[in-house]
Amino acid sequence: QVVVERRLQRSRGVTRHQLGREAFLAEVWRWKEEKGDRIYQQLRRLGASMDWDRACFTMDPKMSRAVTEAFVRLHEKGLIYRSRRIVHWSCALRSAISDIEVEKKELGGRTLLRVPGYEEPVEFGVLVSFAYPLEGAGPGEPPEVVVATTRLETMLGDEGVAVHPEDPRYQ
User: Fold this and answer.
1) Which of 53, 69, 70, 61 is nearest to 29 (CA)?
2) SS3 string of the chain?
3) Cα(110)–Cα(126) distance, rounded to whole angstroms?
4) Which pLDDT tens digit goes with each residue over 80-103?
5) How far is CA 129 from CA 57, 69, 89, 149, 161, in A?
6) What angle separates helix 21-45 from helix 2-12, to the nearest 10 degrees?
7) What is the dihedral of CA 111, 116, 117, 123, to 10 degrees?
8) pTM of the entire structure?
9) pLDDT tens-place string over residues 128-145
10) Which terminus of the chain has fewer CB atoms gathered within 10 Å of its CB, N or C?
11) 39 phi/psi in degrees, rounded to 5
């Protein structure tokens, strides 16, 4: 799905939401027709051992029904649930993406990068400092603990801050 979404964004400048469900599914099927045989060829060259006569696509009607049924059963057993956790979110795709779909780049410092969905480059590699107030700080004790991060948005999920036990500022 993400491959097709990125392709649509690059080639036509549209998202799956702008395209609509049916048109997006048609694009997925088009991609499958273009790339499916090549993927099978690559698997064969890698030496994959399987019954090629039983190969199927996850969006085939029979498979799609099976996936829905499995999802419902897992949900009923409490094995699929909603949770308040940080996920990789693509602002351009308006969807959560897996770790493997995240494009990782090493930065040597402050860097401007083009991000899909943004007209102007976005600044990365910046260390942001902010302070958490300390509860019960007495006279002569620091009133806050300063934290530095490159991912400021994660601070909303913070539940605690650890400091080095020998740091004299927090004795």
Assistant:
1) 61
2) CHHHHHHHHHHHCCCHHHHCHHHHHHHHHHHHHHHHHHHHHHHHHCCCCCCHHHCCCCCCHHHHHHHHHHHHHHHHCCCCCCCCCCCEEECCCCEEECHHHCCCCCCCCCEEECCCCCCCCEEECCCEEEEEECCCCCCCCCCEEEEEECCHHHHHHCCCCCCCCCCHHHC
3) 5
4) 888 888 888 887 777 888 888 888
5) 48, 47, 23, 7, 14
6) 120
7) -10
8) 0.48
9) 898 888 888 788 888 888
10) C
11) -65, -45
End-to-end CA distance of the chain, in Å? 52
112 φ/ψ angles, rounded to the nearest 5 degrees: -95, 125
Residue indicated by tokens 């491959």: 3
The one-letter code for the residue type at 137 is: A
